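Hey, quick one: can you model this chain's 3D structure?
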Amino acid sequence: MLAVLTASCEPGAPPTSESLPVETVAPTVAPDPGVCEELADEAVELVADIVDQLDETDYAELSDGEAWGDELIALQERGSALDAEASAAGCSAGGIQAAVRASLGEVGGDSPLAELLVSLLAPPG
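Sure thing. Here's the predicted structure for all 125 residues.
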């Protein structure tokens, strides 16, 4: 937008449609509540699986991505796929996070790493 304004103030030929910047806007997807609820349920299951895996993972392995086992890599891939699917479906990230937070009473870990994850996801207050 600034380029258009400054171009119109410069001497010389007026800008043409070829010289004007073109902004593209992705179409807005109307979220399907049923799909978003399913994805929220999948996110709750994913967090529970992450907590379970953290109970079996030491800090050295977790902090070195090169040392990750197949289980941690699979969890990361599930999370990335879930994020992409929720975004494509137009689901609210806040709504999915709220579902995860609501389930935290059912999710608990025995390790300090799992407890840290649960405390980080818990709502403030």
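One thing worth noting: The chain has one domain: 30-121.
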